[in-house]
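Appendix B. Chain record.
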Amino acid sequence: MIGFNWIEDLSPLTRNAVLEKSRLRSCPGGTTLYQQCDPVIEVFQIVSGEVRQCILTADGQEVLIYIYKPGDVIGDSSIGDEEPYSVTFITRGESVLRVWTARDFNALRATHQEVDSAVAAQISRRLRGALRIVEELLTQSVAARVASRLLWLSQVQRSSNDAVSLTLSQSDIGLMVGCTRPNVNRVMKELRALSLIDTDYGKVLVRDVEGLRHYINDHRRRSRDDFGDK
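Structure tokens predicted for this chain:
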């Protein structure tokens, strides 16, 4: 599976049944699909564009968790428990989405075991990702956190053994790992110097996954303020 597109992995018959229940919706950039504490009433799959998954704090700060790409399914992990949503989804640029109502989506889960199993697997996968973020923030230096985030994102989006291109600015990375842009810049310069990554106008090319793993291990015990991050 590339990204979070479990629909692509369904059998043709089940996939067609799922897609037939959807409708298309066009959204301008900056459209809030879900805000924290909203009820979960729809599930989305990105056809084109991107969607930011973030947490907005009471004082207006943003914690960026993930940027979903075309094919990714969002809203599926919380559709069955009738609890309010815990994160915010905002379109990044003009986007086209497939949309299922909660009623239709839950009916598909009830009638197609393959769909229910895929959703359960996604919930587990997202939980592992969330626990990894917590572990990074609590135990790793800034350098290790930046490298860990790039490694995880490249693993999620990797379709082959080739280098992986990530559409990320240094500001995005800072919001993901909880540090300032200048500190991200220092780490990125070091990773480039080691030939682990390349950068180009808001994109990061992960060139050496194994090298990133060694870099992370070498920096695990370094203190949080090694790069002046307060």
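Further analysis of this model is presented in Appendix C.
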